[in-house]
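Changelog-linked ticket: coenzyme A example.
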Amino acid sequence: MEIRKATLDDLKEIAAVEAECFPAAEAASEESLRKRLSVFADHFWLLFDGDKMVGFVNGMVTDEPDLSDEMYDDASMHNPDGKWQMIFGVDTIPEYRRQGCAGKVLSRVIEDARKQGREGLVLTCKDKLIYYYAKFGFENEGLSKSVHGDAVWYQMRLKF
Ligand SMILES: CC(C)(COP(=O)(O)OP(=O)(O)OC[C@H]1O[C@@H](n2cnc3c(N)ncnc32)[C@H](O)[C@@H]1OP(=O)(O)O)[C@@H](O)C(=O)NCCC(=O)NCCS
């Protein structure tokens, strides 16, 4: 298993993994992923088993302390010198789940954000995954204002 950063050439495979992992209302569209890759491909961490992409984590960097829905489709909000590494999505394709794949990628993302001198990382998740992110040091800050996919989201923050 190898983790590497993305380029625009990875778009199709990233979009396929995203569509496999999230319901249509929550999955980032190929167009949205294209915009993100054009601006912050170096904030996509891709996990490969040989030449097969099995998962990835992505998100912009910003000084905004809270993750808002507008960030998902507005890559221009990315600020490479920002304080917070946002996490927009954590994806592992179904047949590779429960083998530590997401954990491996998340640990790398956290390590990179620390090395880059960020203040920390911010994500939103459904209540069923709060315990999972807590294992990495994320703290639950309560309900997020997000209405993404008409679901209820909690915001979690890992502060260095
Ligand atoms: C959530 C998601 C990313 C987790 O991916 P994953 O690669 O299965 O994650 P991990 O393997 O690191 O951890 C999942 C569980 O497997 C366990 N696990 C890890 N390695 C294991 C192993 N070798 N054997 C058995 N279990 C293992 C972990 O401890 C964890 O268990 P827990 O739920 O009891 O804490 C994945 O299910 C997914 O893509 N879901 C759909 C998209 C989604 O909801 N993403 C998150 C939204 S923010």
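Closing comment: Example verified and attached. The mean pLDDT is 97. The helical segments are 11-21, 30-40, 70-73, 101-115, 130-134.
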